[in-house]
Please model this.
Amino acid sequence: ERLFPWSREPDEPPAVEIDPRRAFGKLVIAGTGIPTEVVADRFRAGDSFLDLARDYGLDVSKVEAAIRWEHRALAA
Model:
């Protein structure tokens, strides 16, 4: 089973998911196997949203959502 937490509104399209069959159950960008942690680490290292989106073949909005979720995890 997959879990789709939402960030703003319940009807918002899922940006991230938790699936035990992907990345050992770590939080990943929805529809990919890309862990949000990896994207956020690269952002903290200096990569821009646009660079990350281009490298992973994603919309910038998905990259932003991944980083937002990781920021929440660090703040908790």
Observations:
- The mean pLDDT is 86.
- The helical segments are 36-44, 49-56, 60-75.
